[in-house]
Amino acid sequence: MDYKTNGCDGISCKGCGRQDKKLNVFDWLVDVPGNLEETDFVEVQFKNTRKGYYLNSNKIPLQKDDIVAVEASPGHDIGTVTLTGSLVLLQMKKARIKSDAEVRRVYRKVREVDMEKYREAKAKEQDTMIRSRQIAKDLGLNMKIGDVEYQGDGNKAIFYYIADGRVDFRQLIKVLADVFKVRIEMKQIGARQEAGRIGGIGPCGRELCCATWMTNFISVSTGAARFQDISMNPQKLAGQCAKLKCCMNYEVDVYVEAMKRFPARDITLETLDNTYYHFKSDILKREITYSTDKSFAANLVTISTRRAFDVINLNKKGVKPESLLEDGDQEEPQRIDLLDQDSVTRFDNAKKKKKKKKPAGRGGGNNQNREQKRSAANNDKQG
Q: Most buried residue, 3, 18, 162, 332, by CB count within 10 Å?
């Protein structure tokens, strides 16, 4: 098998698509013999994250990044082939599209005439969006038109909008059809989908998940933050869509499973000297910190979950240990986290003034040396 890697460390570059395409899928099976003959379906991507699956009934030799004209209603649309071969069937299964369902076809690879119409239609999208926003405002509709996408032949326009509730846009469709002379389709999207269409960089330094690979958006609750002991700061928990970050759901199952091995937080531990209340838990380290006061940190003691269960079992038997720590253990010194300090000058050190010592023999000299010289001179006179 001949791999043309072009410096891709053994991975065929044929599987890569243009990186300006959102939700791009790498074709790992591109060099497998017979992969393209597995199916006649191809994945075609249009503006931003809109994708479709089309039947290549004419057996046109298609590869990734080929620009094709596909069947639309009405007319045709222009898109880019983003996946071919057996992986298309898996993507269709993920999108819950059955292969025996009625699908649209791939007409041809684009011609220059098709591209001219396509460019003319795309050039009108920005002006159409701005004007449609003003029309919706004049009609008093509580909605925001976030994007406009023209079909490849310019006969149809899709208006993506965001609204909190149901919007009666029948009058809006009539006005838009009269103004722009095209067929109108309204499609409601959520705040997360809008962020995916716009794109951006997250606080992790990478592209937004919704703009790169996420297609299904699962609701995120503040319970995910509580399970992971994340600070309940709305500014840190919210993403660029002003909703809770989707990435909070990635590890919450691990934390929920780990929490099953922790004692309940309302259980108090009794020793001979004090009563200890739950203060915080380090789930990944399996450690619990207890405080002698319910409201604030006082006499903090950090122990393992195993030791906590041992103390609970002793308390159930009516036995109170001398200390929460096991024999031979030493309480760790309290760590100071610099990130918790609010002062912007926390790294500045106060400069201490150093007193300069006067050199001996100048400005009065050394008193001890002078006394020694005087006593030596007196001895000489007496001798």
A: 162
- Determine the residue type at 269: L
Task: Write the CA distances from 146 to 68, 94, 165, 363, 372, integer angstroms.
Answer: 27, 27, 16, 82, 94
- Domain extent at residue 104: 13-110
The rounded average pLDDT for each run of 10 residues, N- to C-terminus, in the chain (383 residues) is: 44 58 75 81 86 90 90 90 89 79 88 93 93 92 90 91 86 92 91 84 88 82 87 87 90 89 90 90 89 87 91 91 74 54 58 52 53 60 52
- Looking at 193, 210, 235, the residue that finishes a domain is 193
The answer as to whether 352 is a domain residue is: no
Q: What is the pTM of this model?
A: 0.65
What's the total number of domains in the chain?
A: 4
And the tokens for 58? Answer: 């004419």
Helix 125-138 / helix 112-123 crossing angle, nearest 10 deg: 40
Looking at the structure, do residues 95 and 20 belong to the same domain, yes or no? yes
